[in-house]
Amino acid sequence: MINSILLQAQGGASAMSTIFMMLALFGIMYFFMIRPQQNKQKEIQKFRAALGVGSKIVTAGGVHGVIKELTDSYAMVEIAQGVKIKVDINSIFPSVDSGVKQIETKE
User: Fold this and answer.
1) How far apart are CA 13 and CA 21, in angstroms?
2) Is residue 53 within 8 Å of residue 25, measured between CB atoms?
3) Burial of 55 (0-12, 13-18, 19+ CB in 10 A)
4) pTM of whole model > 0.85?
5) 84 vs 19, 66, 97, CA distance in Å?
6) What is the maximal distance between C-alpha atoms in the chain?
7) Are strands 83-88 and 74-80 parallel, antiparallel or unpaired?
8) What number of CA atoms fall less than 13 Å from residue 73's CA on the CB side?
9) How large a percentage of the chain has pLDDT more than 70?
């Protein structure tokens, strides 16, 4: 692939400028796509580590509730008076009114 790109460098453009452009594109992708996603994942992991009984949460499906029981792999979440559901820890996100700093997404 690189050989074909280097061979196509014509009209005054050198092979070094082609390689430089490829590196620049990778750098742009890293700083605008990969790095922000990694930071978002770290913040979600911090939130999940700080979960406790009584924390207000939102599940990945959009169900709002309060944690009533917590284990390493699941949480019992009360979604209404006397109604509890069992959800996987990985499907829990901060609630808007949980007091936890919200992770902003730019769309």
Assistant:
1) 11
2) no
3) buried
4) no
5) 57, 9, 20
6) 74
7) antiparallel
8) 0
9) 76
